[in-house]
Protein backbone atom coordinates (compact mmCIF):
# COMPACT_ATOMS: atom_id res chain seq x y z
CA UNK A 1 0.00 0.00 0.00
CA UNK A 2 2.81 2.39 0.89
CA UNK A 3 4.60 1.61 -2.38
CA UNK A 4 1.45 2.50 -4.35
CA UNK A 5 1.22 5.83 -2.57
CA UNK A 6 4.89 6.53 -3.24
CA UNK A 7 4.55 5.63 -6.94
CA UNK A 8 1.42 7.79 -7.24
CA UNK A 9 3.22 10.74 -5.62
CA UNK A 10 6.25 10.32 -7.91
CA UNK A 11 4.13 10.09 -11.09
CA UNK A 12 1.99 13.07 -10.07
CA UNK A 13 5.01 15.13 -9.04
CA UNK A 14 6.92 14.36 -12.23
CA UNK A 15 3.86 15.28 -14.32
CA UNK A 16 3.58 18.62 -12.52
CA UNK A 17 7.30 19.35 -12.85
CA UNK A 18 7.28 18.37 -16.53
CA UNK A 19 4.23 20.54 -17.16
CA UNK A 20 5.78 23.55 -15.45
CA UNK A 21 9.10 23.13 -17.28
CA UNK A 22 7.37 22.82 -20.64
CA UNK A 23 5.16 25.86 -20.34
CA UNK A 24 1.71 24.34 -20.05
CA UNK A 25 -0.71 24.40 -17.16
CA UNK A 26 -1.33 21.47 -14.89
CA UNK A 27 -4.93 20.78 -15.77
CA UNK A 28 -7.15 17.76 -16.33
CA UNK A 29 -6.24 18.04 -20.04
CA UNK A 30 -2.49 17.92 -19.40
CA UNK A 31 -2.79 15.07 -16.91
CA UNK A 32 -5.14 13.11 -19.20
CA UNK A 33 -2.69 13.62 -22.09
CA UNK A 34 0.07 12.12 -19.97
CA UNK A 35 -2.17 9.18 -19.11
CA UNK A 36 -2.76 8.57 -22.85
CA UNK A 37 0.91 7.83 -23.17
CA UNK A 38 0.86 5.57 -20.12
CA UNK A 39 -1.94 3.57 -21.77
CA UNK A 40 0.13 3.30 -24.98
CA UNK A 41 3.40 2.46 -23.23
CA UNK A 42 1.85 -0.16 -20.96
CA UNK A 43 -0.01 -1.93 -23.80
CA UNK A 44 0.99 -5.27 -25.27
CA UNK A 45 -0.65 -6.04 -28.62
CA UNK A 46 -1.17 -9.56 -29.95
CA UNK A 47 0.21 -8.30 -33.27
CA UNK A 48 3.56 -6.48 -33.37
CA UNK A 49 3.58 -2.91 -34.70
CA UNK A 50 6.62 -0.82 -35.64
CA UNK A 51 4.64 2.34 -34.97
CA UNK A 52 1.30 3.07 -33.37
CA UNK A 53 -1.27 5.59 -34.52
CA UNK A 54 -3.16 7.57 -31.88
CA UNK A 55 -6.23 9.34 -33.26
CA UNK A 56 -8.14 12.02 -31.37
CA UNK A 57 -11.78 12.88 -32.00
CA UNK A 58 -12.16 16.24 -30.30
CA UNK A 59 -14.19 19.35 -30.66
CA UNK A 60 -12.23 22.53 -31.48
CA UNK A 61 -9.78 23.72 -30.20
CA UNK A 62 -8.54 20.11 -29.83
CA UNK A 63 -6.79 20.70 -26.51
CA UNK A 64 -5.38 17.18 -26.07
CA UNK A 65 -4.04 16.99 -29.62
CA UNK A 66 -2.36 20.41 -29.40
CA UNK A 67 -0.86 19.63 -26.00
CA UNK A 68 0.60 16.30 -27.16
CA UNK A 69 1.82 17.81 -30.43
CA UNK A 70 3.68 20.64 -28.65
CA UNK A 71 5.17 18.48 -25.92
CA UNK A 72 8.13 16.14 -26.10
CA UNK A 73 6.13 13.33 -24.49
CA UNK A 74 5.66 11.49 -27.80
CA UNK A 75 9.37 11.12 -28.39
CA UNK A 76 10.53 10.22 -24.89
CA UNK A 77 9.76 6.51 -24.94
CA UNK A 78 10.77 3.65 -27.21
CA UNK A 79 7.49 3.34 -29.11
CA UNK A 80 6.92 5.40 -32.25
CA UNK A 81 3.55 7.14 -31.85
CA UNK A 82 1.92 8.98 -34.74
CA UNK A 83 -0.67 11.53 -33.65
CA UNK A 84 -3.67 12.20 -35.90
CA UNK A 85 -6.73 14.43 -35.39
CA UNK A 86 -9.88 12.96 -36.95
CA UNK A 87 -13.49 14.06 -37.05
CA UNK A 88 -15.32 10.74 -36.66
CA UNK A 89 -15.00 7.11 -35.73
CA UNK A 90 -15.20 6.08 -39.39
CA UNK A 91 -12.32 8.46 -40.22
CA UNK A 92 -10.26 6.91 -37.41
CA UNK A 93 -10.94 3.44 -38.81
CA UNK A 94 -9.92 4.58 -42.31
CA UNK A 95 -6.68 5.97 -40.84
CA UNK A 96 -6.00 2.52 -39.26
CA UNK A 97 -5.65 3.92 -35.76
CA UNK A 98 -4.52 1.69 -32.89
CA UNK A 99 -5.85 4.08 -30.24
CA UNK A 100 -8.81 6.41 -30.50
CA UNK A 101 -9.60 9.11 -27.96
CA UNK A 102 -13.13 10.51 -28.00
CA UNK A 103 -13.71 13.66 -25.95
CA UNK A 104 -16.89 13.86 -23.92
CA UNK A 105 -18.50 16.39 -26.27
CA UNK A 106 -18.23 13.87 -29.12
CA UNK A 107 -19.13 10.68 -27.20
CA UNK A 108 -22.86 10.96 -27.85
CA UNK A 109 -22.29 11.06 -31.61
CA UNK A 110 -20.79 7.59 -31.63
CA UNK A 111 -23.30 4.78 -31.85
CA UNK A 112 -23.12 2.12 -29.16
CA UNK A 113 -22.82 -0.82 -31.58
CA UNK A 114 -20.05 0.90 -33.55
CA UNK A 115 -18.14 1.55 -30.34
CA UNK A 116 -18.52 -2.05 -29.11
CA UNK A 117 -17.25 -3.43 -32.44
CA UNK A 118 -14.38 -0.94 -32.60
CA UNK A 119 -13.22 -1.77 -29.06
CA UNK A 120 -12.68 -5.38 -30.17
CA UNK A 121 -9.77 -4.35 -32.43
CA UNK A 122 -8.74 -0.85 -31.27
CA UNK A 123 -8.14 0.73 -27.88
CA UNK A 124 -10.95 3.25 -27.44
CA UNK A 125 -10.49 5.91 -24.76
CA UNK A 126 -13.14 8.28 -23.46
CA UNK A 127 -13.72 10.69 -20.60
CA UNK A 128 -16.88 9.40 -18.91
CA UNK A 129 -18.27 6.24 -17.35
CA UNK A 130 -21.08 6.43 -19.91
CA UNK A 131 -18.43 5.89 -22.61
CA UNK A 132 -17.64 2.51 -21.02
CA UNK A 133 -21.32 1.65 -20.64
CA UNK A 134 -21.70 2.23 -24.38
CA UNK A 135 -18.90 -0.19 -25.27
CA UNK A 136 -15.70 1.82 -24.88
CA UNK A 137 -12.61 0.10 -23.52
CA UNK A 138 -10.87 2.72 -21.33
CA UNK A 139 -12.06 5.94 -19.76
CA UNK A 140 -9.99 8.59 -18.02
CA UNK A 141 -12.55 10.15 -15.71
CA UNK A 142 -12.05 13.31 -13.68
CA UNK A 143 -13.23 12.73 -10.10
CA UNK A 144 -12.50 15.04 -7.18
CA UNK A 145 -9.84 16.90 -9.15
CA UNK A 146 -8.01 13.68 -10.09
CA UNK A 147 -7.98 11.55 -13.23
CA UNK A 148 -8.98 7.94 -12.58
CA UNK A 149 -8.57 5.07 -15.01
CA UNK A 150 -11.58 2.84 -15.68
CA UNK A 151 -11.65 -0.22 -17.93
CA UNK A 152 -14.69 -2.03 -19.30
CA UNK A 153 -13.98 -5.58 -18.10
CA UNK A 154 -16.14 -7.23 -20.77
CA UNK A 155 -14.50 -5.32 -23.64
CA UNK A 156 -11.03 -5.89 -22.15
CA UNK A 157 -11.56 -9.67 -22.07
CA UNK A 158 -12.10 -9.61 -25.86
CA UNK A 159 -9.54 -6.94 -26.70
CA UNK A 160 -6.42 -7.61 -28.84
CA UNK A 161 -4.36 -5.63 -26.33
CA UNK A 162 -3.44 -6.43 -22.76
CA UNK A 163 -2.21 -3.87 -20.27
CA UNK A 164 0.73 -4.38 -17.96
CA UNK A 165 0.30 -4.87 -14.24
CA UNK A 166 1.79 -1.39 -13.75
CA UNK A 167 -1.27 0.16 -15.39
CA UNK A 168 -3.83 -2.33 -14.11
CA UNK A 169 -3.00 -1.76 -10.45
CA UNK A 170 -4.31 1.81 -10.78
CA UNK A 171 -7.39 0.77 -12.72
CA UNK A 172 -11.01 0.43 -11.68
CA UNK A 173 -13.03 -2.15 -13.62
CA UNK A 174 -16.66 -1.80 -14.66
CA UNK A 175 -19.09 -4.09 -16.45
Question: How are the SSEs ordered, and which strands pair?
Answer:
Elements: H1 2-21, H2 28-41, E1 43-45, E2 51-57, H3 63-70, E3 80-86, H4 89-94, E4 99-102, H5 112-118, E5 123-126, H6 129-133, E6 138-143, E7 146-152, H7 153-157, E8 161-163, H8 165-168, E9 171-174
Parallel strand pairs: 2-3, 2-4, 4-5, 5-6, 7-9
Antiparallel strand pairs: 1-8, 6-7
Helix pairs in contact: 2-3
Question: Class by helix and strand content?
Answer: alpha/beta
**Record field, number of beta strands:** 9
Query: Mean of the pLDDT scores?
Result: 81
> How many helices?
8
Helix-strand string: HHEEHEHEHEHEEHEHE
Determine the N-to-C terminus distance: 26 Å
The low-pLDDT segments are: none
Radius of gyration: 15 Å
Largest sheet: 7 strands, mixed
Q: What does the overall shape look like? A: globular
Report strand %.
25-35%
Measured as a percent range, the helix fraction is: 25-40%
* Sheet with most strands: strand arrangement: 3-2-4-5-6-7-9
Q: Would you write up a description of this structure?
A:
The chain is of the alpha/beta class and 175 residues long. It is built from 8 helices and 9 strands. The strands form 2 sheets. Strands 3-2-4-5-6-7-9 form a 7-stranded mixed beta sheet. It has a two-stranded antiparallel ribbon with strand order 1-8. β6 and β7 form a beta hairpin. α2 packs across α3. The longest helix is centred in the N-terminal third of the chain and has 20 residues. It is globular, with a radius of gyration of 15 Å. The protein starts with a helix and ends with a strand. The mean pLDDT is 81.
